[in-house]
Amino acid sequence: MIRFGAWSTLLAVLALQMVLLAVVAGLAPANRRANHFLAALLLVMASMMLPFVLGYAGFYDAYPWLTAAPFSIPLALGPLAYLYVRALVGRRREPLFHFALPAGQFLYQCVLFTFPTASKWWWDENIHEPLIAPPLTAALLLSMAAYTTGSWRELRRYETWLKDRRRSTAPARRLGAGLVVLAGLLVAEAGYELFETWVRPIDYFDLFGFYVLIGILGIFLGLNGWRNSDVPAPAIIDVPERDWSAQGACWLQELRASDWWRDPSLDLPGLASRLGTNANHLSRALNAHAGGFAAALATLRAEAVAKDIGSGREADLLTLALEAGFGSKASFNRAFRVRYGKSPSAYRSSR
User: What is the pTM of this model?
Assistant: First the structure.
């Protein structure tokens, strides 16, 4: 006799809400690829609850041929959650191998569903439970763990990308809230498996709490996605890495050709302004090519003094140093020794 009691009604209500949220997400005009993956994920979670809705309501007793109907495809949870994250951060490639295990699970259930009812029961007792269920459970746990880790890495990379461009990290935080769902399901599934291994076998009714949790987490995920379905999320745009060393060489050549380096008050922001760039880019380029802004200036000034010495100027070394832009005798001696391996006086003597 079919009868919707408290358990079957609660699960049915939770599943129905996920289906409605999936429809709303799938119809959202913005972030279409991401929202389609979210809708598919919600439908998979709702379909996982369907066998228990039917079972607690008595459908399998009334219609035994429904046994092994291909409703539940839990191996699709991890890939869909991962692809949802990738779509939101702007990733475009979705290799087909992500769907290999879910497709295999679905085909297995479709074939088993065609068996006569008595054959299904025999198969479940003699083949599925002892031989297929253990590796299938291990595959589910490994899949969810791997895709949760992959999603978290994508999220961290996205957050770093936003911070580097001084953008709001709110899109990354919204994605982080969604990952709580996948991590929660992984922990719950692992907990049930450990309980069954170390305490006692889990029966059909023990799983009620797990599927209530699926419903709650699914609604949380759906509401979080629905609230932000039309919110634009800046997509990562991978551009070729700039050759900072080459850029540093170009700017250093421009600096060498000018007399700016003779100004003892010259600082990094001032030089960046003269070169038409910003201090961060100039600092990065000079670090890559010349060991930094201060090292570049010291080298140019030391070379200027060495050139004066080589031309035969008789002025004292401190005068030459101050003309080149050095602020003190100590900094001059230090920079000259770094550049030429000897003191200025020894260099003059050798010339």
Answer: 0.66
